[in-house]
Amino acid sequence: MPADLTSTKGAQVTTVEKLDGVPFSRYSDRAAVLVIGLALVAMTLKLAIAYNTIGTNDAVFFYGFAKVLNENGLEWTYQHSRYFNHPPLIAYYLRGIYALTEQRSCQDIGIHFPFLLRLPGIIADFFVVLILMRISKTDFRIPTWALALFALSPVSLMVTGFHGNTDPVMVLLLVCAVWMCLRNRPVLAGLFFALSCQIKIVPLLFLPAFLFFWFSQKRSRGFLISGPITTCLLWSEPLLHFPMLFTKNVLAYGSYWGLWGITYLVRLTGFSQFSRLSFFDLEPAQIFIMTVLKVIVMGAAIWIGWRNRHTRGRAFIDSLACTWLVFFVFAPGVCPQYLIWLAPFILVLSPALYTFVLISSSIFLFAFYNITSGGLPWKVALAMDDSMQHWTAWALLPWLIIVVGSFALWRKIHARKLDLRLFNFMKLRAENA
């Protein structure tokens, strides 16, 4: 619990709070103002970028999906496009902004489809900063410099402001679910977790961790009620009318082979059975390797969740960050915009590792967008098969940083456990002497 202490510097007396052994001055509000100011600057830049650009071919594809969804509906779109692998909530949003941007009033003021596609993500990024600041103030301290770096992240500027996808919204909802775990609100945790799964399917990777967390407290009922109810309501259309089609397009989706990490290195071997760049119609050898990598990731997620089921506060977020690290080390494929997924979690786990991942990811993303846009200024970036040969090598940089950083963290944690065991053993020997 906070305890008031008094410190004197010259004639000035300040009040300091102590939370988890860390002193906070009342003047720390200046740090909050700085971080919020940087977040507002970043949001303004993202809005300007989104208003004046089209984005990547993702934004172009989303526009095509929106048009088809309005004309033919969700089932027809799933049936006739393997590229549409998004949950129904995204389909409903695409239909809404498509209808809105077709109105003359929107067109007159320059509100276009790619802008509204990116707008929720821009707002989401700002709220993630606010939540992290709240956590830093009430639960455990996150260094101000790290929060400031996160608020003005170049990765976030490029992905949220320019790319044109829904990933930042998923990150916000997952962070909200974690925040509700810190606040001991199982119903809201279940709600936000389910909503995050309506944007992308990848949060299901953390379902074991959330379940074990609430089971260990014997408070899982609220989580198990709000989460499934929300999911069933928002997935009701495909589950009731075309469940197999929904499972094939959405739940069974796997990312591109050969663009990231292990599968990229395997593709460099030059063997024909590993050469195809796609997420469908892959060779049996490619499917086998991807399956093995997925099993490793899912198995690690379950194991980490179980081993850390009794952790609370920062330790719980650290366990989720470790799961993200395993995912990015062994993932069969990672698209450039995915690099914002793990950011708030490894920021808590290790601000130093976050910084290295941020720098390496920024270099990779700049190369990616610059190559696919044909150079500055960026207006539209088309990451087609011929351009992939030029930018995929840059993806090795953040992957290698994540691999090396994960190994270094594992060594550090392992050494700490050994030191603790040795200390306990020596203490026991001294007590028995």
* Sequence of strands across the biggest β-sheet: 1-2-3
3D shape: globular
* N-to-C CA distance: 38 Å
Poorly predicted residue ranges: 1-27
Rg over alpha carbons: 23 Å
**Computed structural class:** mainly alpha
How many beta-strand elements?
5
- Give the count of structural domains: 1
State the major sheet: 3 strands, antiparallel
Give the helix proportion (percent range): 55-70%
Order of helices and strands: EEEHEHHHHHHHHHHHHHHHHHHEHH
DSSP helical segment count = 21
* Residue fraction in strands: 5-15%
The average pLDDT score comes to 88
Task: Outline the fold blueprint.
Layout: E1 3-9, E2 12-19, E3 22-25, H1 29-52, E4 55-56, H2 57-72, H3 74-80, H4 88-101, H5 104-108, H6 113-138, H7 144-151, H8 154-163, H9 167-182, H10 186-197, H11 207-216, H12 220-234, H13 236-241, H14 243-251, H15 261-267, H16 284-307, H17 314-330, H18 343-349, H19 351-373, E5 380-381, H20 385-391, H21 396-432
Parallel strand pairs: 4-5
Antiparallel strand pairs: 1-2, 2-3
Helix pairs in contact: 1-6, 1-7, 1-8, 2-3, 2-4, 6-8, 6-9, 8-19, 9-10, 10-12, 11-12, 11-16, 16-17, 17-18, 17-21, 18-19, 19-20, 19-21
